[in-house]
Design brief:
heterodimer; A: 313 residues; mainly alpha; ABC transporter involved in vitamin B12 uptake, BtuC; 16 helices; 76% helix; 0% strand; B: 320 residues; two-stranded antiparallel sheet; globular
Chain lengths: 313, 320
């Protein structure tokens, strides 16, 4: 599947799912309905972008869920009570992410294990900050997340914005190209004189930034936090990147696809409740949808290969 | 140092599993130091019991990780839960149904393993995503099956899982037996060579006549069967299956493989290290517990220790 068509399947899956939701629940086809459907998708989309930054450099981040929980806890406590200190903590956390990226590269460590270890660390700090659910959302974040722009609901605007900004950053800027090159051919990047360590640290720092943003948005929506608030984001974000047409190796990622993948996963939950499916099967059906989309992708890519083969032959 | 008169000892020190056991011993001593040496026997028994669960799932995960980058089984927790739930509900506390219950649990593992493999093979889904999506299905199945009802295991079975054989917990005996069999399979059998060959260079392995697809299928199936077996034991040990009983074993299963000195890049694994890693994971937590640290500090220390061990034992530091 060439890059141009990579985005096609995520778009189609989202459209099909959205059409199904509208068919089942026509009232969802409104400003309010759309906002309700996609509200919780904003932090998931940001976490998915964070995960994409790591997958882009051929690593995988198993700590993003606990990191988002940690950021949410900082936002609901320090950032609310003493904004300067809160901001300092969040910036330190982003620097820590960069340091992990550098460490992984310098010592040639397996990212899957280091991030696994970090998931304990972030989880531990989050428990220390908020042993029981609580805290409060800073007023400005709450206002930002509940703002009602004309015509299109906040959640949709935010997702388009996230997709646009990251698309420019990753697909259009020279830095983004270099970062993707690290995933594509690390040796070539190193030989042409770039510091792979700095680039990897940069990719991890970007992941940290989007992780922090995800935590802040989440608190803005839920108005309080707890240490386990976003644990499922780790798996959701990996699934979102893959659903969005990204691949585990080779720096082949798509920011727009990743956001759409996250939206699809968030929508899958609403779709299933509209289907009046027993809550027992909610998680299972999400897995089934994931499998289904990947199966369709296989059919697409096979056909693509056949066409290419015919042209060449 | 290079010309040490004790090459044999150095030989042990350079074994990848040495550090896991050394660190376990340190954690054990540090815990006993606090109690002036009392309770050492109990601590060891507890460590051996709980480490068996981690070791058995860890061995399954190790076989999968040996297959090389991208191969990891994320469905272990869900498979454990599903097997434990189904088996305990089926047995319903009847002593006579212990063996059929065990067979049912193993069949669940077999089914889950085959399903995982088919997703990977037929749908060409990356193993991480395949086992992840499949685990959602297994988890739902477990929820639907008994809606979180806690059914007690048959008394004989509960006694067996908490009992001991000449001082060694029964579960440890099982865990060590599985480890020995796995070691023989990995190090001494043709199949073990095939797994390593797959992990080192799949293409070369295929060209030299290794039935790569069969190797991959058997590996994923054995991981799932071992997870199911652990779920059966864990549910019987803890007096009933809980829907979240497998959760912590996702991280543990991967952590013990890596702490034990197996290469996460695949192709090079060792079984003794799994037990070392499993003991370490339990002893570190109980050490931090006995020093009165809260849950937060305990998590932070566990994570830091995992990273420190990996940073010290692997990467550029090791000349292997």
């Amino acid at each position: 599947m060439s890059g141009r068509y990579r985005i096609l399947l995520p778009v189609i899956s989202l459209a099909v799912l959205l059409a199904a939701v509208f068919y089942l629940q026509p009232r969802a086809m409104s400003y309010f309905g759309l906002n309700l459907l996609f509200n919780l998708a904003v932090p998931i989309a940001l976490a998915t972008i964070a995960q994409m930054m790591i997958i882009m450099v051929n690593d995988i981040d198993l700590s993003i869920g606990t990191f988002v929980s940690f950021s949410a806890c900082v936002t609901a406590t320090f950032l609310n009570d003493t904004p300067l200190l809160g901001a300092a903590i969040l910036i330190a956390a982003i620097l820590a992410y960069a340091a992990i990226g550098a460490l992984i590269h310098l010592r040639e460590l397996p990212a899957i294990v280091v991030t696994l270890g970090m998931s304990f660390v972030w989880g531990g700090v989050a428990v220390l900050l908020l042993p029981s659910p609580g805290g409060a959302a800073p007023g400005w974040i709450r206002t930002l997340m509940t703002v009602k722009p004309p015509l299109v609901p906040m959640a949709v605007v935010a997702c388009v914005l996230i997709a646009g900004v990251t698309h420019v950053l990753i697909m259009r800027s020279s830095t983004g190209t270099l970062l993707r090159a690290v995933g594509g051919n690390t040796k070539a990047v190193a030989r042409s004189g770039w510091s792979v360590m700095k680039l990897k640290a940069g990719a991890y720092a970007l992941a940290g930034v989007f992780g922090v943003l995800s935590g802040m948005c989440l608190v803005g929506l839920t108005t309080s936090a707890d240490a386990n608030i976003a644990l499922r984001y780790t798996l959701l974000s990996i699934a979102g990147v893959i659903l969005g047409g990204g691949e585990f190796t080779g720096g082949k990622v798509s920011p727009v696809g990743a956001v759409i993948g996250a939206l699809t996963l968030a929508l899958a939950g609403s779709f299933l409740s509209f289907m009046r499916l027993s809550p027992d099967w909610q998680i299972g059906a999400q897995g089934a949808i994931l499998i289904l989309v990947l199966a369709v992708r296989l059919v697409f890519s096979r056909r693509g290969r056949k066409w290419k083969g015919a042209e060449n032959g | 140092m290079a010309k040490s008169p004790l090459p044999a000892m150095l030989g042990i020190v350079t074994r990848p599993w040495f550090w896991a056991f050394a660190a376990s011993a340190l954690a054990f001593i540090a815990t006993l130091y606090l109690s002036d040496g009392r309770g050492g026997g109990e601590l060891l028994a507890a460590a051996l019991t709980f480490a068996s669960f981690s070791a058995i799932v860890g061995i399954g995960q190790m076989f999968v990780i040996t297959l090389g980058p991208g191969n990891v089984d994320l469905s272990i927790p869900a498979t454990m839960t599903l097997a434990g739930t189904l088996a305990l509900k089926f047995m319903g506390g009847e002593t006579g149904l212990i063996v059929p219950g065990l067979l049912l649990a193993l069949a669940v593992g077999l089914g889950a393993g085959i399903f995982n493999y088919l997703l990977i093979r037929l749908l060409r889904i990356p193993p991480i995503i395949a086992t992840l999506s499949a685990s959602f299905l297994y988890q739902s199945l477990a929820i639907w099956w008994n809606r979180g009802l806690r059914i007690k295991p048959p008394e004989v079975l509960a006694d067996f899982t908490t009992g001991a054989l000449i001082g060694i917990p029964n579960l440890t005996v099982i865990g060590i037996l599985i480890a020995v069999v796995s070691w023989v399979v990995l190090e001494r059998s043709l199949f073990g060579r095939w797994i390593s060959a797959f992990g080192q260079n799949t293409r070369a392995a295929r060209l030299s006549g290794v039935p790569v697809e069969a190797v991959r299928a058997i590996t994923y199936v054995s991981s799932a069967v071992l997870a199911a077996f652990t779920g059966y034991l864990l549910a019987s040990f803890s007096g009933g299956a809980a829907l979240n009983m497998g959760t912590e074993y996702l991280l543990i299963s991967i952590a013990v493989v890596v702490i034990g000195g197996s290469s996460i890049a695949g192709g090079n694994s060792n079984v003794p290290g799994i037990w070392g890693g499993a003991l370490l994971m339990f002893l570190v937590v109980s050490m931090l517990n006995s020093y009165g640290f809260g849950a937060g500090v305990r998590l932070i220390m566990t994570g830091t220790i995992i990273i420190a061990i990996v940073a010290a034992a692997s990467g550029k530091g090791r000349s292997a």
